[in-house]
Amino acid sequence: MKTSINxxxxxxxxxxxxxxxxxxxxxxxxxxxxxxxxxKHMKATSNASKWFDRDRFVLSAGHGSALLYSTLHFxxxxxxxxxxxxxxxxxxxxxxxxxxxxxxxxEATTGPLGQGIGMSVGMAIAEAHLxxxxxxxDLNVIDHYTYALCGDGDLQEGVALESMSLAxxxxxxxxxxxxxxxxxxxxxxxxxxxxxxxxxxxxxMNWDYHYVDDANDTEAVSQAIEKAKKTDKPSFxxxxxxxxxxxxxxxxxxxxxxxxxxEETDSMRRAFDFNHGPFDPPKEAYQDFKDTFIxxxxxxxxxxxxxxxxxxxxxxxxxxxxxxxxxxRGEVDFDKLLAPAEIGTVEATRASMGGVLGEVSSAIPxxxxxxxxxxxxxxxKGNDGNFTKENRLGxxxxxxxxxxxxxxxTNGLVLHGMKAFSGGFLIFSxxxxxxxxLAALMNIPSTFIFTHDSVAVGEDGPxxxxxxxxxxxxxxxxxxxxxxxxxxxxxxxxxxxxxxxxTPTVIALTRQKTTLLKDVMYDDFKQxxxxxxxxxxxxxxxxxxxxxVELALKTQEHLEQEKGVKVRVVSMPSMELFERQPEDxxxxxxxxxxxxxxxxxxxxxxxxxxxxxxxCGLNRFxxxxxxxxxxxxxxxxxxxxxxxxxxx
Length: 648
Prior knowledge:
Structural class: alpha/beta
CATH architecture of the largest domain: 3-Layer(aba) Sandwich
Distance between the termini: 76 Å
Number of domains: 3
Radius of gyration: 27 Å
CATH class of the largest domain: Alpha Beta
Shape: elongated
Helix content: 40-55%
């Protein structure tokens, strides 16, 4: 055991030293904790690293990636010595912070502190829901834990505390957070920035609290984990450690984020009686993990496979449903499921979404989600009642006013195989941006639905009226932002989001009613832009998204009737989708021969100039008043837009 722990420590130090970059402090301090978790408790195996019923381990303190990579290496995951030697180097599978999809065994992309805890809560919700739904009295096919390792910095982040608050309220008994409590952070001792009583804090959030006074006491660590696994609440284990344990500057922030150096590392090898050179760990460490973690995990995996075979025979329908979730299947005939709305339908796009969400959720059992204390306004709600301690089968998550947590939890649910969505006001997406960015970085299809998407919100005023938010998400790599114009575009937007496998989708919806004036087929919609209304011999083009498509159509009519001017109207629900189209498709919608173009959107104009000569947009904040009056006051009327076009 001692040899294996030191093997993890020194392999981590070797990585940091060779890269001349990294965080050795947590490697030295927390190695015994991670070692004991893997060799004694974790139910997983590197021989089937994507096994659905495995325990999940999330390194919320993502700066400690060297600790994670060295542990996964000994545990048999697909990380070889050359990968470790390439730590933090361009093109390696061992990046500076763990990245989901890049490295075998990494369950989530972490590094922005607190996010790992939030995603762990999502994973624990998924486990609890699936366990209640699929386990039978005689057969348990879902039976695993979610573990997260965090540091002091994680627990100072709002996203972590929001997530923990909800986890405690929901009684997520299969969630265990291991707190590497070393009283030090980057800028110095934690006492300089916080006076929190962490025990009282977590217990007040309905968590069980456990304490270990020395991280090197692996038996005490193991006993605490064992107790944590037997409670009916989420568990928090505070483990006192020494950052940079064994180094000259142990216990200080100097060991947090700077290499210790080869000379001192060699001195530490002698002090630790560890007679192995750089990147030359003892064979005993590999054998130790093979005899514990891998052997136990292989047996558990084999037992689960046998259980699934029995389950398949006894409960064939439930088996098919579960395997659809496990394998990411579940095809839906959307054309049959979602009948198009009739021309002339007058409905806010948020209301349209509320209707279709319920219908689609009935057809896709993996769908789960909810809103941040706003479902009455957003209409974004899951089926089957609220997910609670008493009703694990509910698929509506009542998040409370916790947008930070909601977005991170949504990602955790998706990482666990669910079709997860969230709901909120577009203006409050500012709270969710870090998680949306992580979804894009992880290449996972989280769905973020936002309403109240413009200054037409009205009476709530500029604090609640988004301006720059659409531009932010359009600028985020690997993120599709969709702003539907009407009831049918909403149907297509949701369908598109649910068909994705590696890209998150942001959907922006109206509070105010819109009129369905023109229909569109799904294949045209998912081009990102299409001709909503055409005129023979048109001289120019009006381009719009969302509620402004209706304004563009009215402006088209105004121009022809009042001025005899003919223009084409293009609905562009998604710039990102349009940019991915072949040139012939782009040319058919926005012909290069017609350069007289005006874009219209109740928000920041900047992203529109790639398509238009001029933009009816907003370079200012909104105003408080009746929505229609605010819109008119800001110049978004058919006559004002027509005048703007004629002045091109």
